[in-house]
Amino acid sequence: MEVKGRFAPTPSGRMHLGNMLAALLAWLDVRSAGGELVLRIEDLDTQRTSREFAAQLLDDLRWLGLDWDEGGLEAGYMQSCRTKYYEEVFRTLKERGAVYPCYCTRSERLAASAPHRDDGAVVYDGRCYHLTAAEREALELQGRRPAWRVRCPDLKVTVEDGNCGRYTEDLARDCGDFIVRRSDGVFAYQLAVVVDDALMGIDHVVRGRDLLCSAPRQAWLHQMLGYVPPAFFHVPLLLAPDGRRLAKRDRDMDMGSLRERYGPEELTGLLAFYAGLLDRPEKVTAKELVSLFSWAKVPKNDVVAGTP
Ligand code: GLU
Asked: Domain span at residue 175?
């Protein structure tokens, strides 16, 4: 079967070295299998993202020698233009009674949550699930606008990650009822990503390890909606020398700064070294890496990037 993968960046700033590592591995995963790559722009949150950042990231990918077969700045591949698909699925979930309105404010939500998970997220205790129709109505009359949560069953979901191995979560205990639509009407990442991956026929999802904890709930949502979940491959995050995760605000690791200091082949070599494909950083093109690529070589744990 032909592989169809995707790279799905959020255009909320200039990409950093860690984003480029995920992009390179998503590209190599597809190209080494003779498959196709979709570039999807995850700009659901129009306050935090911009078309300029999106255009910039396309340029950064091309600069590194990465291409794609579908997607980019066309409306069909920008989440901000795909609301009708999310609406449709949301309506189905509502009709099935799978989602419920949650009126908790941010501080109420934190108070209504079990202790934080390892990834800093909180597990909501489901209190709004138990509201009566009259209580809901009273809150609506106060002008409260609800977010919508999907009700999670007491179910263990296991994902066989193609890089990290087996990962299991007990949905009710480890994840809790999660938001699929925010109170301002914007659809949440968890819903949009599942709908898009399914409708775009994606069967390989390659992305940063910070999203491994989202994989069980996404696999479950795929199944609940009658889709086949994709195979997941979570790639190491790059850490600064002090152990912090690289973030878009680390300007010296962002593509603006890196492109001033490196050529594309030099930077590809550095990424290939971090990805376990080269023994030491040396100039290489993305195309030359295709024959060297194997998931067996890619580290399972995060990698300290040092100061390049
Ligand atoms: N848009 C997400 C990000 O940039 C990635 C989502 C995904 O790959 O599932 O972090």
From this structure: 98-189
